[in-house]
Amino acid sequence: MRNIIATLIFAIFCSVSPSKAQQNGALFSSPFDFELMLSGNFGELRSNHFHSGIDFKTQGVVGKPIRCIADGYISRATVQAGGYGLALYVMHDNGYMTVYGHLDRFPAEVHKRVREYQYNNETFMVDISFAPDEIRVSRGEVLAYAGNTGYSFGPHLHFEVRDSTGEELYDPMLFFAGRLKDTRKPVATAIAVYPLDGYGVADDSSASRVLAVRNGTLADTISVWGRVGFGIKALDYMDGTSNKYGVCRVELFVDDSLRFDSRMEQFSFGETRLINAWADYARYVDKGEWFLRSFILGNNPLRALEADACRGVINFNEERLYKVEYRLSDYHGNTSVYRFNVRGTRQDIPPYASEGHYLLWFLNNALLYDGVRLDIPAGELFESRGIEVGIVDGEYGVSRRYTFGSEPIPLWHGAGLSIRVDSMAVDSSRLYIKRITKKGGYSVGGKYADGRISTDVNALGTFEVAVDTVPPRISAVKEGAWARNGKVVFAVSDKETSLKSFRGTLGGRFILFKYSSKNGRLELDLKAEGVSRGVHQLRLELVDACGNVRVFEKKIRY
Q1: Distance (Å, whole) CA 364 – CA 362
Q2: What is the per-residue DSSP string for 270-325?
Q3: CATH architecture, range 473-557
Q4: How far apart are CA 383 and CA 322, in angstroms?
Q5: Rounded to whole angstroms, how far apart are CA atoms 133 and 119?
Q6: On the CB side of 303, how many CA atoms lie within 13 Å of its CA?
Q7: How far apart are the C-alpha atoms of 274 and 49, rounded to whole Å?
Q8: Would you give the DSSP letter of residue 379?
Q9: Where in the chain is the domain with CATH 2.70.70.10?
Q10: Residue 277 in contact with residue 297, Cβ under 8 Å?
Q11: Where in the chain is the domain with CATH 2.60.220.30?
C-alpha cells in the first residue's frame, strides 16, 4: 500500500511545474543544520550507470551530523570497500525509502550490530537488515555522520530517495529544490551529427561528426540528406559553486516541431545501464566525452526518453534550410536555447557496408569460431548492427586474441564468452579472461572447465586468456608511526586481477581490518579494537581472484 501511495504522489508532482513540485518539500526536512549545496545531481552520467541520487556537500569535512528527515525505521546497514562505503537505509512512514552513503560512522545501535556481524562472520563486508520495530528513528534526530568512505573522493553525503521496494529511484530535487539556490542555465559546448549508416549523410559522409558550439550556435551550416540524428554535449551549473552537473531536461525541435524530449527525474536500477544506449558509448570510451543522443536506438526502453514516431531521427528529404533548436533546462526552470540551421542538399548515400556478421538485437545471436564462442541473448544489444571478428596470436601463448567489432559495443546485461585453451603450463585456476584496452587491460573473470575458460562480459571488445600466478602485494605504510598513532596501515594491490579476500589475526584471533578499494589501504585501529599495550603477533592473509595467496607476519609493538 505504501508503495502505491508513493508512486501516486510522485506522479502528481511530476505532472506539475518545478515550482509546484517544490511544495513536496514538506514531506522531508533537511538532513543538515547548514545551507544545502550539491556536488552532484540526479541522473548524472557515470561509467555504465546513472548517478542514483544527489551529493550534498558537507563543508569539506567529515563528521557532520545527518538529521533524520522523516519518521520511520532503519531497515538496512551495509559496509563496502568501495561503492557507498558505510551506508544506511531508512524506511519512512510516508512510503519512501531514503539512502545515506559514504558515512563516517553509524549511530550507536547500528554500530554495535555491525561489529557483532563482522566478528561473528570474520568479515569486513556487511549487509544486514532490521525489522520495523528494531531501530525506530524520528524526524530531526541525529541519524548518522557524513564521511568519505567507499568510492568517494571527498567528504560528502550521497543521498537517495526510493520507493518502498528500493528499486525505483526518484530525483531528490522533488523534495529539496526549494532549499537550494540555482539561477544558472545549462551550457552546451558541442553538437554531434549522426547520419544513419546506409540511410543518411552529412557533408558527403556517413560518419558521425562533432561541431563546436560558439556564441550559442554552430559556426558552420552543415549539409545533410536522408535520415540523420543529433546529439549534444552539455553540463549544468548552480550558484555559489564551481561543480558541474548533468542536464535535467533536453528538448530537440526541428522546424518548431518537438522531435525528442528527455527528462531525468526517475529510473530503476534495471534501467541504469541504458546510459550506454542513450549516450555515445564508443566516443566516451575512446575520448572520455559524454554526448547524449537526441534519438532513441531500437532497443532502448529508458522511460526518461520520449520521441516522435521516427524515434527522434530526422528525415531530411527536401532541398531547403531546416531550423534546429535545442532547449536545455534544469530542475529550477533555468533554460538555455541553441538554434542553428542545417541545409537539405541532395547527396549520394553510400549503401550500408555490413561487417562480417549482422546481428539483430531482438534475436539470440551466437558467434562461433575455432577456439571461441560468444553468445549474445536477445535484447542485450541496443541496436541491430554488423560485427567483424578479428583473431590474432595472444600474448601468453595459451590462446589467441579475439576482437568483436571495430569499436566498443555495450550490452544491457551481458553475453557469455568462452575461449578454448590450446596449451597450458600453469594451474588452470590461475587463468582468467582479460579485456584489452588502450591502457593495457583488466580481468573480466572466468572459470576453467573441459579445456575452455568462460565468463560473462557486459561490453564487446578485445579479449584473450591471461595468467595470474603472482600473489597480491602488501607493504607497510609509515610503520614507525603505528605505535604512536594506534593504527596499523598497509598498502595492498594485485597486478593482474584483484584482491578477493583478506583476513587478519592478532595473537591467533581474528581482528577487524578496514579496507578501502579507492586507495588500496588496509587499516587496523588498535584502540577501537580494544588491543592492549604490548607486543602482538600480527598475521595477514590476502587472496586474489585467481587464488594466489600472500601471507604477511610480523610482531608489532603498541
Answers
A1: 7
A2: GGGGGHHHHBTHHHHHHH----EESS--TT---TTEEE-TTTT-EEE-SSSEEEEE
A3: Sandwich (2.60)
A4: 28
A5: 24
A6: 11
A7: 8
A8: T
A9: 2-179
A10: yes
A11: 357-467
Per-state percent for the chain, helix, strand, coil, to nearest 5: 15, 45, 40
CA angle centred on 443, ends 413 and 464, rounded to 5°: 95
The rounded distance, in Å, linking the Cα atoms of 410 and 392 is 22
Q: How far apart are CA 116 and CA 87, in angstroms?
A: 17
Closest among 193, 549, 159, 174 to 343, alpha carbons compared: 193
- Report yes or no: 324 and 341 within 8 Å, Cβ to Cβ: yes
CATH 3.40.1000.10 fits 2-179, yes or no: no
pLDDT tens digits along 291-335? 999 999 999 999 999 999 999 999 999 999 999 999 999 999 999
Q: Where in the chain is the domain with CATH 2.60.40.1220?
A: 473-557
For the full predicted model, state whether its pTM sits above 0.85: yes
- CA–CA separation, 67 vs 64, rounded Å? 10
53 touches 159 (CB < 8 A): yes
Q: What is the 3-state secondary structure (H, E, C) of 40-108?
A: ECCCCEECCEECCCEEEECCCCCCCEEECCCCEEEEEEEECCCCCCEEEEEEECCCCEEEEEEEEECCH
Task: Report DSSP state, residue 532.
Answer: P
- Which CATH architecture is the domain 357-467 placed in? Sandwich (2.60)
Closest of 326, 171, 347, 351 to residue 248, by C-alpha: 171
pLDDT digits (tens, 9 = 90+) for 180-225: 999 999 999 999 999 999 999 999 999 999 999 998 888 778 999 9
Q: Within 10 A of 88 (CB to CB), how many other CB atoms are there?
A: 23
Integer angstrom CA distances of residue 488 from 204, 456, 556, 557: 64, 38, 9, 10
